[in-house]
Amino acid sequence: MTRIRRLGGESLAVTVSANEFIALSRLEADLLGVLADRLTALADGGATRDRMFPDAYHDDPEAAAEFHALTDVDLVTAKSEAARSVMDAFMSAVEDSSGSRWRRGTSRTVTTDAALTLAMLRNLTDLRLMVADRLGIQNDDDDGSGGAAADRVVYWWLGETQELLVEALSAGGFGMPDR
Amino acid sequence: MCESGGVASSIPAPSTIERTDEALDLTPRHTLDTPWRAIVWNDPVNLMSYVVYVFRSYFGFSREKATQLMLQVHHEGRAIVASGTREAMEVHVHAMHGYGLSATVDRAEK
């Protein structure tokens, strides 16, 4: 399981195992593929709403299409940049072999600043949205039992990691007074 | 339950300030007569804690208000998170989409 330690402010130390790092690398590659497909679909005028690109207007298809046309490239860019920055951070992270000795390989620890913390939160959300699609999750009660076991494990891990991230940040009040 | 979303002021500019023509280019969608709302919808993926985090960090809501809105989204399927001009609501909705939340703009009048 991912380990998260709050260093102060919105800076966190995020440690993943070797296996988690491999899983994350695959997910990020998949996500970048999905995002590239979205750009192609946009260029072809065939982009439709999906989890990562919701309609901004429910009862006005024309306004919804216009909003997609105006904002989707920006969303793709932001999501791609978040994926890359998270991946870059773990790629260049110091490997630490003193971690859990019952795990094979070495863990990696990334020290985030506020920007990388935010990128990580958004990126984990995107990855969960992508895996939820694979699992066919449609409503709150779905547990993805219809999908592949490997995807369910990954989905659980992403959720757990995000929960830990938010928990660590909430302790700091997001750097603002609790109004 | 509505929260001001940075509503554009309808107060006329002081007469001492010379206004350019662009100040007159106000279509009805810019006026307070047709307020718009930003609505966040329930989805089966996003964590409750994350939604609270987004409401607190983006809108600056208190923990209580953010939690209350999150629960409203969870139980009622949606919650109004801001109201104001169409442009301001579109900015909020775009931001929510950036956080991976499902959000829409709609006209407040029924």
Task: Map the helices and strands.
The complex is a heterodimer of chains A (about 180) and B (about 110).
Chain A: E1 3-8, E2 11-16, H1 18-43, H2 61-91, E3 94-96, E4 107-111, H3 114-135, H4 149-170
Chain B: E1 36-41, H1 48-59, H2 63-76, E2 78-84, H3 86-98, E3 102-107
Antiparallel strand pairs in B: 1-2, 1-3
Q: Care to describe what's here?
A:
- The complex is a heterodimer of chains A (179) and B (110).
- Chain A is built from four helices and four strands.
- Chain A is globular, with a radius of gyration of 18 Å.
- Chain A is an alpha+beta fold and 179 residues long.
- Residues 175-179 of chain A have low confidence and may be disordered.
- Chain A is 56% helix and 11% strand.
- With 110 residues, chain B is of the alpha+beta class.
- Chains A and B meet through helix 2, helix 3 and helix 4 of A and helix 1, helix 3 and strand 3 of B.
Please provide a brief summary of the model:
Chain A has 179 residues and is α+β, with helices and mostly antiparallel strands.
